Amino acid sequence: MVTVSGELALLGGKPEVTEPIPLWPAVGDGEIDAVVTALHRSRSDVQYLNSMPGGGPVAALEEDFAGHFGVRHAIASASGAASLHMALYAVGVEAGDEVIVSPYTWGQTVSPILNQGAIPVFADIERETYTLDPQAVEARITPYTKAILVVHIFGQPADMDGILAVARRHGLPVIEDCAQATGGRYRGRYVGTIADVGCFSFGDGKQIIGGDGGMVLTDDAGIYERACAIGSHPARQERDIQDPALTPYIDSLTYTYRIHPLAAVIIREQLRHMDAWNAERRDNHERLSEGLAGVRGLRPVAETPGGEHVYHRHSPTIVPDELGGVDRATIVAALEAEEVPANLGYVRQPIHLRARFQDRAYFFGRQYPWAAHRSGRGADAVTYRAGDCPVAEQRCAAEELDLLGMTAPAWRGGLRELVDQHVSAAQKVFEPANLAALRDWERGQVSAGE
Ligand SMILES: Cc1ncc(COP(=O)(O)O)c(C=O)c1O
Fold first, then answer.
1. What is the secondary structure of 19-70 as a DSSP string?
2. Are residues 119 and 131 in the same domain?
3. How confident is the model at residue 365 (pLDDT cuts 50, 70, 90)?
4. Could you give the residue ranges of the DSSP H alpha helices within 189-233?
5. Last residue within a domain, chosen from 254, 273, 292
6. 213, 208, 238: which is closest to 225 by C-alpha?
7. Is 207 a member of any domain?
8. Closest of 145, 119, 93 to residue 383, by C-alpha
9. DSSP per residue over 1-31, as a string?
10. Is the pLDDT of residue 3 over 60?
């Protein structure tokens, strides 16, 4: 049972969280041994430090990843963004096409669309899960839509049944951005294996980390070969591209999207632990959510029906009307004073309201890619306005709370005491008497500043 002790730390009381906050990444002996072994091997096998042909440790990672996830084809890459660019190209997105995507995401879900010369069209998110709302997606489809890019934000699987039903009705390919959700599942299947192609990231704060790195997974040989054509070295293209429509183009006119071989070694080692680590994360984060369930002023993280959240971030919802007039920033300050890592939110401004979209200035000249819209109507064919995605906009403006910041994926293993301390910190901050004290504190801050 969690007990709440007295005065807020912000107002001079003792912080609730005294347990050490775990760090992420937390490299084990397995990764260290694997890297040292790889470097020794590089003295006799250059593939341990030369990934151009995609053999050696890169091929080993791809084989293990495809095997573990149960798909036919895997292509490792330098990053999640590189994977998404390869996937967009591979499903046939071309300059001037529209791609439907969530505005509630990290910018690099969207920048690969722009780099492909295509035009992002934003559909709103679901209120409880923050993932794409299938009805909103359907409402945004036009004759120019070429693909749907769905994001499993924070580790939360999107409503894939709903998204795929819409996609099938309109004959559109679906790309899954699993950068934040490696190992998450939906109706028993790993995200990234449900739609046409899945893209992963192994960069900072992810479920498994290689320093950097990415992965494209698909069952479709055509998508795989086109991904190779845009993102791999000609040595690999020679090996893996068989489609006669692509073979004349085997060339170095491509991107260096391949993975560093030592990153491949680290990720391969971590893959062996992925499911166990994610299960531990789920236990700890669910315990936190259960503890927060009775806290007035906060709506705990909800799970997508049929989904298994894997917690890249822990982002509950602030209920502004239940704060007794206290500002969200004051709540964050009070939580931080209790030694709970917290901030005002991960996304903060939906992508469609950011300057590059408002000014339609991505390449900073002549309004490309918007000017290349397939309709021929020029840069005004797609516009971005406040009100386009009200749920995402309201969440960013008043409801977002990033409760654990970058410490969320570090919540593996037996952390009961730490979790319970976070619960009591939140209970303390949101207690009505303490909210009243925070309101007085706020007033004091305002008059001191006058
Ligand atoms: C949702 C999402 N998509 C794409 C990316 C890009 O991944 P990377 O940093 O590996 O390029 C990130 C990175 O954090 C992300 O969070």
1. SPPPPSS---HHHHHHHHHHHHHTTT-GGGT--TT--HHHHHHHHHHHHHHT
2. yes
3. confident
4. 221-231
5. 273
6. 238
7. yes
8. 119
9. -----SS-GGGT---S--SPPPPSS---HHH
10. no
Verify that 265 and 279 share a domain, yes or no.
no
Domain end residue (candidates: 243, 273, 303): 273
For the chain, the average pLDDT equals: 96
Atom of ligand 1 nearest to the CA of 202: 10
3-state secondary structure of 116: coil
Q: Is the CB of 81 under 6 A from ligand 1?
A: yes
What's the mean pLDDT in 128-149? 98
The stretch 257-272 carries a mean pLDDT of 98
- Cβ of 369 closer than 6 Å to ligand 1, yes or no, is no
Predicted pLDDT at 389: 98
The pLDDT of residue 161 is above 80 = yes
HSE of 265, CA atoms in CB hemisphere, 13 A? 23
* Closest ligand 1 atom to 78 CA: 10
> Would you call 178 helix, strand, or coil by DSSP?
coil
CA distance 150 to 167: 11
CA 447 – ligand 1 centroid, Å: 42
* pLDDT tens string 204-263: 999 999 999 999 999 999 999 999 999 999 999 999 999 999 999 999 999 999 999 999
- Closest atom of ligand 1 relative to the 152 alpha carbon: 1
Reported as a pLDDT band with limits 50, 70 and 90, residue 5 is low
Q: Any idea what the CATH number is for the domain that residue 291 is in?
A: 3.90.1150.10
pLDDT at 133 over 90: yes
Domain range enclosing 142: 29-273
138 close to 166: Cβ distance less than 8 angstroms? yes
The tally of domains found in the chain comes to 2
Q: List the Cα angle 182/185/186 in 5-degree steps.
A: 140
80 within ligand 1 shell (Cβ under 6 A): yes
Is any atom of ligand 1 closer than 6 Å to the C-beta of 177? yes
Q: Measure Cα distances from 112 to 94, 99, 118, 232 in Å.
A: 12, 11, 9, 16
Q: Write out the H or E segment, with its range, that includes residue 185.
A: strand 185-186
Mutation probe of ligand 1 site: the residue of 24, 109, 175, 201 with most atoms within 8 A of C-beta: 201
